[in-house]
Amino acid sequence: MRILRPSLLALFLTAGVFGNQNALAQTPKFNIIQDPKFENLLNEKRKINSSITVNDRYKIQIFYGTNEEAKKALSTFRKEYRNLDGTIVYSNPSYKVWVGTFKTRIEAERNYKEILKKYPNALLLRPNK
Questions:
Q1: In sequence order, what are the beta bridge partners of 123?
Q2: How far apart are the C-alpha atoms of 125 and 109, rounded to whole Å?
Q3: Residue 76's Cα: distance from chain center in Å?
Q4: Where are the alpha helices (DSSP H) in the chain?
Q5: Considering 15, 27, 100, 101, which has the largest number of Cβ atoms within 10 A of its Cβ?
Q6: Does the residue 119 lie in any domain?
Q7: What pLDDT was estimated at residue 57?
Q8: Whole-model pTM above 0.85?
Q9: Would residue 9 count as lying in a domain?
Q10: Which one, of 49, 46, 64, lies nearest residue 125 by Cα?
Q11: Has residue 86 been placed in a domain?
């Protein structure tokens, strides 16, 4: 039985024909039109994400309980303390309201004393440590 081998020339010609098709094709050009509100949304997301970081920051917990009560507590806090940010964190089985992002313990304690007057159950904590 005889085994047929394609000639080397036929192999290069076949590869050249199929390989050259991509080289002659037009490259598509896209013009993306982005809604200006999208950039505003990204900026808000970046702002929220930066306030949620808890690595080496101190936080003050002012409330823990159900979701609805946590929302009310955060809303009330934001009306009283406009200069501090706050967030709701879920920790099974309850929701916690954390406020502030303090770099140093001294700064955190200064605000903690002030917050403790209106929220007697407040706790000074350093998450993830």
A1: 61
A2: 10
A3: 25
A4: 8-24, 36-52, 67-80, 105-118
A5: 100
A6: yes
A7: 84
A8: no
A9: no
A10: 64
A11: yes
For residue 77, give the CATH number of its domain: 3.30.70.1070
Average pLDDT of the residues of the chain = 82
Determine how many CB atoms are found less than 10 A away from the CB of residue 111.
19
In-domain check, residue 109: yes
**Total number of domains in the chain:** 1
Within 10 Å of residue 39's Cβ, how many Cβ atoms? 10
**Range(s) of the domain holding residue 86:** 55-125
Backbone phi, then psi, for 65, in 5-degree steps? Answer: 165, -145
Q: Is the dihedral of CA 8, 9, 13, 19 positive or negative?
A: positive
Residue identified by tokens 């303090």 is 102
Q: Which of 94, 123, 128, 127 is nearest to 111 (CA)?
A: 123
The CA distance from 54 to 83, in Å, is 18
Q: How far apart are CA 117 and CA 101, in angstroms?
A: 19
Cα atoms in the Cβ-side hemisphere of radius 13 Å centred on 63: 21
